[in-house]
UniProtKB/TrEMBL annotation:
InterPro entries: ArsR-like_HTH, HTH_ArsR_DNA-bd_dom, HTH_MetalResp_TranReg, WH-like_DNA-bd_sf, WH_DNA-bd_sf
Molecular functions per Gene Ontology: DNA binding; DNA-binding transcription factor activity
SUPFAM superfamilies assigned: Winged helix' DNA-binding domain
Swiss-Prot/TrEMBL keywords: Arsenical resistance, DNA-binding, Transcription, Transcription regulation
Span of domain HTH arsR-type: 8-102
PANTHER family according to UniProt: ARSENICAL RESISTANCE OPERON REPRESSOR, TRANSCRIPTIONAL REGULATOR, ARSR FAMILY
GO biological-process terms attached to the record: response to arsenic-containing substance
NCBIfam families cross-referenced by the UniProt entry: HTH_metalloreg (NF033788)
Domain of life of the organism encoding this protein: Bacteria
PROSITE patterns the record matches: HTH_ARSR_2
Protein name per Swiss-Prot or TrEMBL: Winged helix-turn-helix transcriptional regulator
Pfam entry (one): HTH_20
């Protein structure tokens, strides 16, 4: 499963699970997408995510510690920028899969719907 790891150790799977755990929070995904092509500060992210600055700061800290964001202080303001482009590839694959499943379910339910011709 972990092709980049030479051995099939539990540590590799723990690291992979931690990586996915970072992405298992909707606010973190929104933050990552907002920072995909621009730098933003805590206040701007809080406003766009409709969350408190404290909540955004907590998520920013976790994402920064995990290496997904870069933090840069400019004067009294700290700006954040995405660092890990593989996140977007992974999310695109997941979104494509969800869309495909949704279309398959819609086709299935349309075919078995009572009164459908």
């Amino acid at each position: 499963m972990c092709r980049s790891v030479q051995d099939d150790s539990d540590l590799a799977y723990v690291a992979l699970a931690k990586h996915f755990a970072m992405l298992a929070e909707p606010t973190r995904l929104r933050i990552l997408y907002l920072l995909r092509d621009q730098e933003l500060n805590v206040g701007a992210l809080a406003q766009q995510c409709h969350c408190s600055q404290a909540n955004i700061s907590r998520h920013l800290h976790a994402l920064t510690q995990h290496g997904m964001l870069r933090r840069e202080a400019r004067g009294n303001t700290v700006y954040y920028q995405a660092m890990d482009s593989s996140v977007y590839v992974l999310c695109t694959l997941a979104c494509d899969k969800l869309s495909q499943q949704s279309q398959q379910q819609a086709a299935l339910f349309g075919a078995v719907r009572p009164g459908a011709d």
